[in-house]
Write a structure and sequence with these properties.
The complex is a heterodimer of chains A (117) and B (114). Chain A is mainly beta and 117 residues long. Chain A is built from no helices and eleven strands. In chain A, strands 2, 4, 5, 6, 9, 10 and 11 form a seven-stranded mixed beta sheet that branches. In chain A, 34% of the residues are buried. With 114 residues, chain B is an all-beta fold. In chain B, a hairpin with a 4-residue loop joins β9 and β10. The chains are: A mainly beta (117), B mainly beta (114).
Chain lengths: 117, 114
């Protein structure tokens, strides 16, 4: 199956600093990537859809200036949490749209646990 | 507004028996459904999917059933194995509308008892 690599897997930062998370599709090209957030014991909530070469589409309630998304190539999307605060602490997961036969499948990275002190 | 619901937060099944995980949805625009398996602190792993033109899709030990009229789908795992212990999420999308974003259910934690 398709492999999506997400880095770092865990990051601790001080309040007010910015954190960048990378999402790479390793063996396929992904024109579309997605960024999710998961709170403990809850489902994955879509934050934004990232399209290569264009601006990301953010879901309602997600601050685009807070969560900067860049999809500069067909294999890399980055999420930058700017001026992070403790309430931004969460598990962030990316996915990349790939294909399995004729079907479009989202393949997920391993996730990044962000802890803001 | 939870458009995809998994009403059982947890399920325990004896090894070798059948595990049945259920999922209900409310949005009739959804026409493509997927099941993912997730271990703690890891991303979800794709298991199996089904399009609304089908009512059943099978892949090895995993079978997904779709009942469009009831807006209900289920995942059957048989025989269940200890390695199947994980959280299972169903997800739905409406790609025919040009919208490939997934709406996830709240998950069901499956525990296989040896």
């Amino acid at each position: 199956g398709a492999v999506v690599s997400q880095h770092p897997s865990w990051v601790i930062c001080k309040s007010g600093t910015s954190v960048k998370i990378e999402c790479r599709s390793l063996d396929f090209q992904a024109t579309t990537m997605f960024w999710y957030r998961q709170f403990p014991k809850q489902s994955l909530m879509l934050m934004a859809t990232s399209n290569e070469g264009s601006k990301a589409t953010y879901e309602q309630g997600v601050e685009k200036d807070k969560f900067l998304i860049n999809h500069a190539s067909l294999t890399l999307s980055t999420l930058t949490v700017t001026s992070a605060h403790p309430e931004d602490s969460s598990f962030y997961i990316c996915s990349a749209r790939g294909t399995s036969g004729s079907l479009n499948i989202q393949y997920f990275g391993a996730g990044t646990r962000l802890s803001v002190l | 507004d939870q458009q995809v619901k998994q009403n059982s937060p947890s399920l325990s099944v004896q090894e070798g028996r059948i595990s049945i995980l259920n999922c209900d949805y409310t949005n009739s625009m959804f026409d493509y459904f997927l099941w993912y398996k997730k271990y703690p602190a890891e991303g979800p792993t794709f298991l199996i999917s089904i399009s609304s033109i089908k009512d059943k899709n099978e892949d090895g030990r995993f079978t997904v059933f779709l009942n469009k009229s009831a807006k209900h789908l289920s995942l059957h795992i048989v025989p269940s194995q200890p390695g199947d212990s994980a959280v299972y999420f169903c997800a739905a999308s409406a790609p025919w509308l040009g919208n490939e974003k997934l709406t996830f259910g709240t998950g069901t934690r499956l525990t296989i008892i040896p």
